[in-house]
Amino acid sequence: MSHLTASQLEHFATLLRDRERVLREEIRAQLLLTEQQHHVDLGGLVRDEGDDAVASMLADLDLAAIHRDVQELREVLAANARLQMHNYGVCMKCGADIGYQRLAAQPAARRCIECESKLEKMYAHDEAPKL
Q1: For the chain, domain boundaries
Q2: CATH architecture classification, 6-122
Q3: What mean pLDDT do residues 10-34 have?
Q4: Rounded to two decimals, what is the model's pTM?
Q5: Residue-wise over 40-66: b if at least 16 C-beta within 10 A, else e?
């Protein structure tokens, strides 16, 4: 059972529906761009290895953006399912309430701030990302 009021739940349901719509539109647009193969065309016009590398990098960035949006869409859909099952706002790890402020910042949050912090520390890397 959620600790959130009916109006708070409706507010989050609206936020999640809106975010789902935006993500679907972004994914659709990115896929259309990929279908147009403008990076593939650029690859066919390259004159040296540097241009070829840039074309490959741009194609990889497009795929990464699509992947990121699909992952977020899955999180939003899972949050919508939790709303339907009346366990939205409850940490899936420890069962505690997820604070309103956390949900306001991240409506698809699945874990309370304590469990999320533990998870992030567990999977934290000491090295800085490299290109």
Answers
A1: 6-122
A2: Up-down Bundle (1.20)
A3: 93
A4: 0.75
A5: eebbeeeeeeeeeeebeeebeebeeeb
